[in-house]
Automatic annotation (TrEMBL), chain A:
SUPFAM superfamilies: alpha-helical ferredoxin (SSF46548). PROSITE patterns: 4FE4S_FER_1, 4FE4S_FER_2. GO terms for molecular function: 4 iron, 4 sulfur cluster binding; metal ion binding; oxidoreductase activity. Keywords: 4Fe-4S, Iron, Iron-sulfur, Metal-binding, Repeat. Gene3D superfamilies: Alpha-helical ferredoxin. This is Anaerobic glycerol-3-phosphate dehydrogenase subunit C. GO terms for cellular component: glycerol-3-phosphate dehydrogenase (FAD) complex; membrane. PANTHER family: ANAEROBIC GLYCEROL-3-PHOSPHATE DEHYDROGENASE SUBUNIT C (PTHR32479:SF19), GLYCOLATE OXIDASE IRON-SULFUR SUBUNIT (PTHR32479). The lineage of its organism: Bacteria, Pseudomonadati, Deferribacterota, Deferribacteres, Deferribacterales. Transmembrane segments: none annotated. GO terms for biological process: anaerobic respiration. The gene is glpC. InterPro entries: 4Fe4S_Fe-S-bd, 4Fe4S_Fe_S_CS, Cys_rich_dom, G3P_DH_GlpC_su, Helical_ferredxn.
TrEMBL record, chain B:
GO terms for molecular function: glycerol-3-phosphate dehydrogenase (quinone) activity. It is an enzyme of class 1 (oxidoreductase). This is Anaerobic glycerol-3-phosphate dehydrogenase subunit B. InterPro entries: FAD-dep_OxRdtase_2_FAD-bd, FAD-oxidoreductase_2, FAD/NAD-bd_sf, G3P_DH_GlpB_su.
Length: 398, 422
């Protein structure tokens, strides 16, 4: 673990991150990003015992987004949490929640119904509840393993190639998003490659305190990225959290695995598709009936500093007007909102978003992030779809 | 699309005002920002001009613009633009749930701080306007238990030193905290958010009723709600005493309300926000700015995106906001790399008196009345780039108490210039 030291003195103690922290907003039990990050970091230098409320940080990155001084507050928190876990051992619950990608890979040949029966029957949920995974939490159901489906898929032979990093959500819980991705890239003239060697991006591992496992994942993934970058093939992902992990956390936490031309490694797929539109590679002639659409921007997308390309993409390709909910964090933060003691915090954080979606009366709800989709369904009763899925539905009039 | 009619860099007062003003006229507007903009932690009071050359202004501040010298941003843009900008800000804020106003006779309001000091300000909420209690005979300065930012006993000591309160009896009290002792020390925003809710509002109402018996006026920290402030404050005014909210150190709550109003307006006008990026440099073609290049998620070595626009408004702030960099070698504007005249010796850039008027506070880009940057000969550097707020040279906002006034009025004027150059 050779994370470069972030200078806590870059923080001017202005409190802007405290103001924009969704968790601090709903509970005074959390010290808040400024105090738990840069301020407490000085005590960590002196090896003083860890602050007890560190575990409340959801790693949603709103502190980083709001900071005017470029302090990587969330990284300070995550590195501290990982060091604490390493010294004191992690919780079984946190291990289970963060190793979903690994577990799903182990069980990928087990039939989906059997996995879901195993995970979602009331007895298992009670058992999980006792280790700290709330029985009310919207844990997504397993779906067919995306990369097994991909292997059997016949794509048109196209000259341009693109590498797709599916991420665990597409791989294990919603393979149809992956198929929609392949569809839209094929439409833009790109044949999609999904390398078998890709593993979980490592963000859930970092958020749950397992830095060493995350470092291993980063090293394997970056070596695959390097191989394709050297061939001049771009790498994209539709998941904002995976993209942010590659762009920010990997170079910050594991600088030893990145190389000069790495440049964040992976691009946001929607941003790439938008550039396809601008280059004239992607458009649809079909007239599409106007549906009302509301869009939620995942925090990990906002943190990337690329704006909200999906809004432009849907509007440009389908002619529909998209309403930007602009109502803050949904409260799930990956596995955070699944945890028994965080479940209620997650719902309170997401309340503004749920209210905004419900009062908009829009027919379609869309957001890139899989767990945001699950939380929106949980908080509003309305299913949320990935933007690329929305485009496909509208174009194919489904 | 990554092309906009008007591209604004910076999301503070100047940037948001520019964005909203341009978008109101139908322009497509994008805002690139690093950080959420300082409005969200400030008091929300908009200072126009409190002091000139160390002397406090007691009449209409517009009467004193000429004393600021012709290179001051106020004199560069002129009184008309300032008046229109302020009127527009008040209209926008009121239309989006945060009621603010100017003094009817054109004077500064008096605001009282959480520490008991007073300051002149020009536009603020009714609750922040402490001019309303200058005739009160019995005043209560109330804090809240465990709210450490507010120490009313100390504030009373401070307030008693002012002539304006010489005839009043001022006492202090602590309202009972609704939370008891908490792991994180409470701040004003925590309480204001609680008061947004019905139970929180009832708590405040009942605590105030109990504490205020016998007083003409009560000063409390800014805790009368965030999004529900206007509604709540109106109701609290019926309790039989004059209620004042002190302006607070960050998080100042009033600023949170004001930013919420501006962002709400921007949302209605479809302003696009690209957050957490850092604009590195501009691409210049044929004497015009073609685009700016923004670094993703603010990490060195990351990918960059190019944003093109017809016109650009640069509201990146001064030295603290990183719009202006001061290094031992030189002082310069950070996107266009415009050199700023400064003494070679770093020591000469500041005043020995820490509360004095520092030269570095005046560092910025020299501009003309359209707010275009000027070269050494006084000609515009780029036709389609306009500067706003603390990126502009020639004013010292802490000693003048003119920060948001300049930011608001130059943001507004920069937008008009951008619209006119279409």
């Amino acid at each position: 673990m050779s994370s470069e030291h972030i200078n806590p003195d870059k923080c001017i103690a202005c409190t802007i991150c405290q103001v924009h922290c969704p968790v601090a907003k709903v509970t005074p039990n959390f010290l808040g990003p400024r105090l738990i990050g840069p301020a407490y970091e000085r005590f960590r230098f002196l090896d003083i015992a860890e602050e007890e409320s560190l575990h409340y940080c959801a790693n949603c990155k709103n502190c980083d987004i709001s900071c005017p001084q470029g302090v990587s507050i969330s990284t300070l928190n995550m590195v501290a949490r990982c060091e604490y876990t390493e010294k004191n051992g992690g919780k079984l619950r946190d291990w289970v929640l963060s190793h979903g990608g690994f577990l799903a890979d182990v069980f990928k040949y087990i039939p989906t119904w059997m996995k879901n029966f195993g995970m979602h029957n009331p007895a298992t949920r009670i058992l999980l509840d006792t280790i700290g995974i709330s029985k009310k939490a919207p844990i997504p159901k397993f779906d067919k393993h995306f990369r097994l489906v991909y292997k059997k898929l016949k794509q048109p032979k196209l000259e341009k190639k693109i590498v797709f990093f599916p991420g665990c959500y597409v791989d294990d819980y919603d393979y149809s998003i992956g198929l929609d991705m392949i569809w839209i890239f094929n439409q833009a003239g790109y044949e999609v490659i999904v390398p078998e060697q890709f593993v979980c991006c490592g963000l859930p591992l970092v958020s749950n305190g397992f830095m060493k496992d995350a470092a291993k994942n980063a090293a394997s993934n970056v070596s695959v990225i390097k191989e394709y970058q050297e061939k001049g093939i771009p790498i994209v992902t539709g998941c904002p959290s995976c993209a942010l992990m590659f762009k920010k956390d990997v170079p910050e936490m594991f600088p030893e695995v990145v190389y000069d031309s790495y440049k964040g490694g992976v691009m946001d797929a929607q941003e790439f598709l938008m550039s396809c539109v601008e280059r004239g590679e992607l458009s649809f002639k079909e007239k599409i009936s106007g549906k009302s659409i509301i869009y939620h921007s995942p925090c990990h997308l906002r943190a990337q500093g690329i704006g909200l390309p999906s809004i432009d993409l849907i509007e440009k390709l389908t002619g529909s007007k998209v309403q930007n909910a602009q109502a803050g964090c949904c409260g799930i933060s990956g596995s955070y909102g699944f945890k028994k003691e965080k479940y209620q915090i997650g719902l309170e954080v997401g309340k503004e978003l749920f209210d905004t979606i419900k009062s908009s009366n829009c027919e379609i709800v869309t957001t890139e992030c899989g767990t945001c989709q699950a939380q929106i369904k949980h908080g509003t009763g309305q299913k949320a779809y990935h933007p690329v899925t929305v485009i496909r539905k509208l174009v194919e009039n489904k | 699309m990554r092309h906009s009619d008007v591209l604004v860099v910076g999301a503070g007062m100047a940037g948001l005002m520019a964005a909203v003003t341009a978008a109101k006229s139908g322009a497509s507007v994008s805002v690139l920002s690093e950080g959420a903009g300082v409005i969200s932690i400030g008091s929300g009071a908009v200072d126009f001009l409190g002091y000139v050359n160390g002397k406090k202004i007691t009449d209409n501040p517009f009467n004193h613009l000429s004393e600021l010298g012709e290179m001051h941003p106020y004199n560069i843009i002129g009184a008309e633009n300032i008046k229109n900008a302020f009127a527009s800000l008040v209209e926008i804020s009121n239309a989006n749930g945060y009621e603010i106003k100017m003094n009817e006779e054109g004077l500064n309001h008096t605001a009282i701080s959480i520490a008991g000091t007073t300051k002149p300000t020009y536009i603020c909420s009714e609750s922040n306007n402490a001019s309303r209690i200058l005739k009160a005979k019995k005043i209560l300065f109330a804090g809240v238990e465990y709210l450490k930012d507010s120490q009313p006993a100390l504030a009373v000591k401070q307030a008693k030193q002012y002539k304006i309160f010489a005839d009043a009896e001022i006492n202090s009290a602590l309202l009972k905290s609704p939370f008891g002792k908490t792991h994180r020390v409470l701040n004003c925003l925590d309480l204001a958010r609680y008061v947004d809710k019905e139970e929180g509002f009832n708590w405040l109402k009942s605590e105030l009723s109990k504490a205020a018996a016998g007083y003409d006026a009560v000063i409390i920290p800014p805790i009368c709600g965030t999004i529900n402030y206007t509604k709540h404050f109106k109701e609290l005014q019926n309790l039989g005493f004059i209620l004042v909210e002190a302006v607070s150190i960050p998080p100042g709550v009033g600023g949170y309300r004001l930013r919420h109003a501006l962002i709400n307006e921007a949302k209605k006008l479809n302003v696009k926000f690209i957050e957490n990026c850092n604009v590195q440099r501009a691409v210049i073609e044929n004497g015009k700015c073609k685009s700016v290049i923004a670094l993703h998620n603010n990490i060195a070595g990351a990918l960059e995106t190019e944003y093109t626009a017809d016109n650009f408004i640069i509201a990146t702030g001064g030295i603290i906001g990183n719009g202006i960099a001061s290094t031992p070698d030189k002082v310069y504007e950070t996107i266009f790399n415009i050199t700023i005249d400064s003494p070679v010796s770093v020591e000469e850039r500041s005043d020995k008196n820490v509360f004095g008027s520092h030269l570095f506070a005046r560092f910025g880009v020299k501009v003309n009345s359209k707010l275009q940057a000027l070269d050494s000969k006084g000609s515009p550097l780029y036709d389609n780039v306009f500067f706003a707020g603390n990126t502009i040279a020639g004013y010292d906002f802490p000693t003048e108490k003119s920060g948001y006034g300049v930011a608001c009025s130059t943001g507004y004027t920069a937008a008009l210039s951008a619209l006119a150059s279409k």
